[in-house]
Amino acid sequence: MSNDQRPGPLSGVRVIELAHIMAGPVCGLMLADMGADVIKVEKVPGGDDARRFLPPDIEGESAAFMMMNRNKRGIALDLKQNSSRDALLELIKTADVIIENYRIGTMAKLGLSYDTLKAINPGLIYCEVSGFGRTGPYKTRGGFDLIAQGMSGLMSITGEGPDRPPVKVGAPVSDITAGIIAALGIVSAYTHKLKTGEGQRVDTSLFEAAITHTYWQSAICFATGIAPGPMGSAHPLNAPYQSFKSKDGWINVGAANQKNWEAMLGVIGAVELNDDERFNTNAARQTNLNDLVEIIDEHIVRKTTAEWMALLEVVGVPAGPVLNVAEMHRDPQVIAREMVTRVEHPTAGTIETIGLPIKFSKTPGKVKDASPLYGQHTREVLEELGYDAEKIAEMQKTKATICA
Fold it and tell me: Is residue 219 part of a domain?
């Protein structure tokens, strides 16, 4: 789908994605879902390494790649060849944004540094997503989600409790959050560009993205000088606010203020706890959390999760079942909010994917297109730049490009 046909608030914005695996592609995904014309440039040979994240696959196509690259057009270029690099430079002249997540120095070696591209497109927004950022003593290090989670402190606060092995968050939160933060940085820089015409560099990292998830624990550490440890599903500042075992599963209960605490006690039949000095204030409940959880567990296990949900909803206490991913996909709220949607893929057929988590009243975004085949839009994009069939055929012959 061409750029002017894409719905969403970023319709008319052209983004060149020179990124692979996850953090950079998450950034491109967010912008594409909101209407930007995101052109994903994959390496020759091989393409994005996520294409080889198998299994699982659907008709030979990587499920991981398809999730991260919907709504994008895809071209394949060997940037070590002059003809491909020249084509990319022509494309960048038409772009508002470029996203890259290579190690520091890689883009410069390819002749694609910010200073080089700024000279041909002064309004360009040049977004760099890396392991540790483009400045500081770790700027040359490569980075992965696991490394960022460990160094940020996240793994020290995740898990069942003290004296247990370190546990990372199940989802690659530093990768995903870095992509979202990068997208926020880009739209902020684009706002500045609309006002002034100036482009700029946007620089964020997996490390910094992971650090943002420690807001509460960092606040505690700044105030007390003590680094908090893991608490399972409990909260470091409010209680009770965690998972409890029900008769048939698990339920999260967020009785995180006095009103909800007292309402919960009425529902579970334990109003006497509000007169107990160990539990009658949030501070007391935090101090005596283990005793509190043991008592509440004895009550919650008597009914099913659905029974507790019905009772707690009546009195307005926030609660929710602990769902697995498949159960989440079938949840009626997920369906109503279009957080699971379907697209048609050229080889995989009808596939399911996660929807856009931001809703706009005037300019709704949409998950419309499946991820591209390797080199699917190369010819289309080159033709938009004025390349004729002979020139494209020549580039294919030298393997400077791949056309699906």
Answer: no
Cis peptide before 55 (omega within 30 of 0): yes
Q: Catalytic residue at 96?
A: no
Longest Cα separation, the chain: 85
Q: Name the amino acid, one letter, at 335.
A: I
DSSP 78: -
113 lies in the same domain as 162: yes
Where does 5-136 have alpha helices with state H? 23-33, 63-68, 82-93, 106-109, 114-120
The secondary structure of residue 47, as a DSSP letter, is: -
Helices assigned H by DSSP within 81-172: 82-93, 106-109, 114-120, 145-152
Q: Model-level pTM?
A: 0.94
- Number of neighbours of residue 130 by Cβ within 10 angstroms: 26
What is the domain range of residue 260?
250-321
Residue from 163, 175, 203, 388 carrying the catalytic annotation: 175
Beta bridge partners of 73: 39
CA 284, distance to chain mean position in Å, is: 37
How far from 320 is each of 134, 199, 255, 363, 392, CA to CA, in Å? 41, 45, 12, 31, 56
Q: Are residue 33 and residue 153 in the same domain, yes or no?
A: yes
* Together in a domain, 182 and 307: no
Q: How many other CB atoms sit within 10 Å of the CB of residue 55?
A: 8
Domain count across the chain = 2
Phi and psi dihedrals of 200, rounded to 5? -170, 170
* DSSP assignment of 196-248: H---EEEEEEHHHHHHGGGHHHHHHHHHHS------TT--SS-SSEEEEE-SS
Compute the distance between CA of residue 367 and CA of residue 353 in angstroms, rounded to an integer: 9
Indicate whether 317 and 341 sit together in one domain. no
CATH number at residue 278: 3.30.1540.10
274-326 pLDDT, tens digit per residue, is: 999 999 999 999 999 999 999 999 999 999 999 999 999 999 999 999 999 99
Per-residue model confidence as pLDDT tens digits over 25-83: 999 999 999 999 999 999 999 999 999 999 999 999 999 999 999 999 999 999 999 99
